[in-house]
Amino acid sequence: MGIYEELQARGLIAQVTDEEKIRDLVNHGKATFYIGFDPTADSLHVGHFMALCLMKRLQEAGNKPIALIGGGTAMIGDPSGRTDMRQMMTPET
Predict the structure, then answer these.
(1) Could you tell me which residues are beta bridge partners of residue 35?
(2) DSSP 3-state of 3
(3) DSSP string, 26-92
(4) How far is Cα 71 from Cα 8, in angstroms, rounded to an integer?
(5) Spatial distance between the Cα atoms of 45 and 34, rounded to a whole number of angstroms
(6) What is the pLDDT of residues 19-77, one digit of tens each?
(7) 52 closest CA partner among 70, 69, 39, 65
(8) Strand 32-37 versus strand 64-69 pairing type
(9) In whole angstroms, what is the distance from residue 16 CA to residue 27 CA?
(10) Residue among 27, 36, 17, 37 nearest 58 (CA)
(11) What 8-state DSSP symbol labels residue 12?
(12) What does the alpha-carbon distance between residue 81 and residue 63 come to, in Å, rounded to a whole number?
C-alpha cells in the first residue's frame, strides 16, 4: 500500500481530479503541495496540527511541502463567515 492509499483508507482524501496521475505522483514522491496559514489569527489550533502532521507524512514519503503564510489574507483578514467588508491594512502592518 502506498502513501496515497494509506491516506485514502484513513478518510483524508475525499475528491481528486485525475486520480490515477495524482496517486502516481504522491506514491512516487513527486508531488509538490502547499498548506496555507492565516497570519492574522491569534494562534494555531488542533486543525492546523492535523494539516502539519499530514504535511510531514507526505514529506517523509518524498513529496515537497510548501507552507504559505497568506500575504493577501494578512492585508484583509480571513473573511470566513463574515458578510461585512474588512478594513484593508497596509503592508507595513
Answers:
(1) 67
(2) helix
(3) HHTT--EEEEEE-TTSS---HHHHHHHHHHHHHHHTT-EEEEEE-HHHHHH---TT--SPPPPPPTT
(4) 31
(5) 18
(6) 999 999 999 999 999 998 877 777 888 888 999 999 999 999 999 999 988 766 566 65
(7) 65
(8) parallel
(9) 15
(10) 27
(11) -
(12) 33
Residue with cell 490515477: 20
Domain boundaries, the chain: 3-76
- Max CA separation in the chain (angstroms): 49
Name the pTM for this structure. Answer: 0.71
Locate 53 and state its grid cell.
502532521
Residue 78 pLDDT more than 70?
no
**Nearest-CA neighbor of 26 among 51, 9, 2?**
2
Q: What angle do CA 42, 33, 5 make, to 5 degrees?
A: 110
